[in-house]
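Many introductory courses stop at the sequence. We go one step further.
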Amino acid sequence: MPFMASPSPASSPSLPPRVRVAAYVIRRHPSPALLVFDQPAFPEAGTQVPAGGVAPGEDPERAVLREVAEETGLTGARVVRRIAVDGRPHPETGQPRLTTYLLLEAPPEGPEEWEHRVDGDGGDAGMRFVCRFVPLPLAHPLADAQDAHLRRVDQGRAAQREAAGRGRPDEARPLS
């Protein structure tokens, strides 16, 4: 069946959500850092974590490893656990989305910063991503409030930051 554009949310209030995953890839050595990227061709997209759609029949753990590899070239990451499920709509289109955030552990070796060009023939083939590990806690928020659940990564560290008055409240709530 050929791809068909979804109707706008305004014309279809019962539009099913786009099922997605987002990756909090953490490298713990020498100190905790989060994998993020920028797209030089689309600077308005802002700094993001790897994220994308889940294929029919694909589980979130497999999808998140695929998205991390596609967007950053990083392989060898290990899924630790699911963090939250977020039901915020797309910020520009209003299209419903259901995003599962997962915690991944990055291999301790490898560069701190690199450039990756997407291979294949998918929708982002040829896109260039500038990837890097940034220290935690983040100095600046991520695009599309992708950092909303980051404090759930390490509950003990988050509680210490909040007690010290440096915690940042969630911008989105996980679904129950």
